[in-house]
UniProtKB/TrEMBL annotation:
It comes from the Bacteria. GO terms for cellular component: cytoplasm. The active site is at 13, 40, 133. Residues 1-191 form the CheB-type methylesterase domain. GO terms for molecular function: phosphorelay response regulator activity; protein-glutamate methylesterase activity. It comes from Chitinophaga varians. GO terms for biological process: chemotaxis. This is protein-glutamate methylesterase. Its EC number is 3.1.1.61. Pfam families: CheB_methylest.
């Protein structure tokens, strides 16, 4: 199978998991993009998180591993306590460097890394959260011509992250989590067959 030519990035912190669980069931089983989820959480909860997300979608869900190829129609979760980067050969790289915005994995690190590889074929979604992580990465996606979506702060469990993003970055869409899947499906397109 060919590597992904488009990527959908989803970042969240406090309250972000609930938003992800709301949007995942609407994703097409033939989604023609790789999906990368960066969620702030305790490092010990990785396998539980993958299992929890897998029951909400027909797409395969896996914890990202070093040098793993990014494939369309697959959901990758950034492992706890590692930054997740995308290399130019469309493989994943795990990094244990310093925390960014008090976070590892950092949403900004992944968003910025991905847009350097995928450029305008990047969609970034920022969900509920209590800090600034993801805002700078959203700006990078916007500047590269990618699509930016922020959760409607009125629907977020913790509205600080989405509210700050809307104030700081030209955001393409502000949506409730339940309305995001159709935008993601449209951006990604569907695999044939």
């Amino acid at each position: 199978m060919d590597t992904a030519s488009r990527v959908v990035l989803i970042g969240g912190s406090a309250g972000g998991l609930q938003a992800i669980l709301t949007l995942l069931p609407g994703l097409s089983a033939r989604l023609n993009a790789a999906v990368i989820i960066v969620l702030h959480r305790q490092s010990s909860s990785d396998s539980v998180l993958a299992e929890l997300l897998a029951v909400k979608t027909s797409l395969p869900v896996r914890e990202a591993e070093e040098k793993e190829l990014l494939l369309p129609g697959t959901i990758y979760i950034a492992p706890g306590d590692y930054h997740l980067l995308i290399e130019t050969d469309h493989t994943l790289s795990l990094d244990y460097s310093e925390k960014v915005n008090f976070s590892r994995p950092s949403i900004d690190v992944t968003f910025t890394s991905a847009v350097e590889v995928f450029g305008p074929q990047t969609m970034a979604v920022l969900l509920s959260g209590a800090n600034d992580d993801g805002v700078e990465g959203l700006a990078d996606v916007h500047e590269a011509g990618g699509i930016t979506i922020v959760q409607d702060p009125d629907t977020a469990i913790v509205d600080f992250m989405p509210r700050h993003a809307i104030q700081a970055v030209p955001v393409d869409y502000v949506l409730a989590a339940a309305d995001m899947a159709s935008f993601i499906n449209s951006f990604a397109g569907l695999m044939v067959g």
